[in-house]
Design a protein that fits this description.
Member of a network of 50S ribosomal subunit biogenesis factors which assembles along the 30S-50S interface, preventing incorrect 23S rRNA structures from forming. Promotes peptidyl transferase center (PTC) maturation. The protein has helices at 17-36, 39-42, 49-58, 64-78, 83-116, 119-128, 134-150, 155-167; strands spanning 5-7, 13-15. The protein is mainly α. It folds into two domains: 5-81, Diphtheria Toxin Repressor, domain 2 (Orthogonal Bundle); 98-167, Orthogonal Bundle (Diphtheria Toxin Repressor, domain 2), CATH 1.10.60. The protein starts with a strand and ends with a helix.
């Protein structure tokens, strides 16, 4: 068993002050993340009315010190809520953000490959996504290459990226 948690003979569990402080710090971190979310996202958490009221109060606080005090209050209220559910929802949000980021990078890589590659790269893309418009893609690639050669703003490259994003590459 850890040093912070001691067991007495009558099976009563005693938690040290250090462990209590660590738990409160974790709750304060969760509370700070909650305060940064949009009010519409708070509804996902199914909080009690007092917690929702405290979260709404966060919107009107402007002072940094007051926000720190309020975060501690939110953490105290959060200790009475189902923190496992809150952590699970944050984990899902983080996973979704990571997936979006990976998708964005994958589309960027395809765009760069198409602009530097040849017809083989285009046929590879069409194998993956047969519903893509070959002629439109060729036109965007040609315009994008021309922009690069002439050092023009990347308007066609942005259009190519947008079109690839619409194709929903997996």
């Amino acid at each position: 068993m850890s040093d912070d948690i001691e067991q007495y003979e009558d099976d009563e569990l005693v938690i040290s002050r250090s462990e209590i402080k660590r738990q409160m710090h974790a709750l304060q971190t969760l509370a700070a993340r909650l305060a940064e979310l949009k009010p519409a996202q708070w509804e996902q958490f199914n909080f009690t009315e007092s917690m929702m009221e405290a979260l709404r109060e966060t919107l009107r606080i402007k002072s940094h010190n007051a926000l720190q005090r309020h975060t501690k209050r939110l953490a105290k209220l959060l200790s009475k809520e189902d923190t496992e559910q809150v952590e699970l929802l944050f984990s899902r949000m983080d996973d979704r953000a990571l997936q979006d980021s990976k998708r964005f990078h994958r589309i960027e890589q395809w765009r760069d490959r198409l602009l530097t590659g040849d017809d083989k790269t285009l046929s590879d893309l069409l194998d993956i996504c047969p519903k893509a418009d070959r002629q439109h893609l060729r036109q965007l690639i040609r315009s994008g290459k021309k922009e690069q050669e002439l050092s023009k703003p990347p308007a066609a490259q942005r259009k190519l990226f947008k079109y690839l994003r619409e194709l929903d590459l997996e």
